[in-house]
Amino acid sequence: MSSYEGLAASYDALTTDVGYEKRADFLEKLFRRSRIPVHTVLDLACGTGTMTWLLTGRGYELIGVDGSEEMLAAAMEKSGQVEGIPPIFLHQSMPQLDLYGTVDAAICCLDSLNYLTRPADVQRTFRRLHLFIAPGGLLVFDINTVAKLAALDGQVFLDETEDTYCVWRTEYHRGLCTYYMDLFDRRRDGAWQRELEIHRQRAYTTEELTGWLRAAGFNDIRTWGDGKLRRPTENEQRIYFSCIRE
User: Fold this and answer.
1) Which of 39, 104, 210, 213 is the most exposed place for a label (fewest CB within 10 A)?
2) Which helix (H) or strand (E) holds 223?
């Protein structure tokens, strides 16, 4: 299946090594590049809301948007774990983003943009973000690079915890990386439940994304290494973008 029903239940356990605190530190460094003070933040493709709640605890007001009801349900279950104004969670796809007003900054983390496999959807997402980021506000997102996704072709990976076991195989063809994921979760009765999910990511070049950002009305477009305030290296696996809404 292509939904996140199985992955949502296991996502937090499988991403314990992501380093959310360090990523949040880096995001705050980029927030300082905004031309307006950052108080309200959109977390686009927020998943289970780990970054949403983390930034909430740091004093920001968050709106979390995701296209998966299962992911949002997991995010809302974290209510009350941190101080601050509770986030607003909305069930929307990225290209159909529709907020009630503007935000000071928007983030889209953990290569979520790569999951938009149609270039037209990426372009539309940028236009929708331009509509709902206040003038002078900041957009930050990261992507898996072409080099990283191409190198995944034919690879097999294993992630496991005490109650979760995930085997995923990858194929890369003409810019499209397909992940075949076998998820096993231990139920309360001790039995294991299996889910099969198929996910796909599109590889986009820096030039493509920069052109689409400019066309949508963003300027001061800069790229950064993975969590580093420096230019990306030639073989960078993850690239961050930051840009200003005109």
Assistant:
1) 39
2) strand 218-224
C-beta separation of 115 from 201 below 8 A: yes
Give the tens place of pLDDT for each residue, 156-176. Answer: 998 888 888 889 899 999 999
Are 153 and 119 in contact, with CB atoms under 8 Å apart?
no
Q: Is 114 helix (H, G, I), strand (E, B) or coil?
A: helix
Q: Measured between alpha carbons, how far is 43 from 8 in angstroms, rounded to an integer?
A: 17
- Asked whether 129 and 216 are in contact (CB, 8 A), the reply is yes
The whole-angstrom separation of Cα 208 and Cα 45 is 21
**Which element (helix H / strand E) includes 32?**
none
Alpha helices in 77-118 (DSSP H): none
At 36-72, the pLDDT tens digits run 999 999 999 999 999 999 999 999 999 999 999 999 9
pTM of the model: 0.91
SS3 215: helix
The whole-angstrom separation of Cα 199 and Cα 47 is 14
SS3 at position 13: helix
Band of residue 81 on the pLDDT scale cut at 50, 70, 90: low
Nearest one of 201, 199, 162, 160 to 183, comparing CA atoms = 160
pLDDT tens digits, one per residue of 223-232: 999 999 999 9
In the three-class reduction of DSSP (H, G, I as helix; E, B as strand; rest coil), residue 165 is classed as strand
**Largest Cα–Cα separation, the chain:** 56
Q: Which amino acid is at 143?
A: I
In the DSSP assignment, the letter for residue 43 is: E
Residue pLDDT, tens place only, 91-150: 999 999 999 999 999 999 999 999 999 999 999 999 999 999 999 999 999 999 999 999
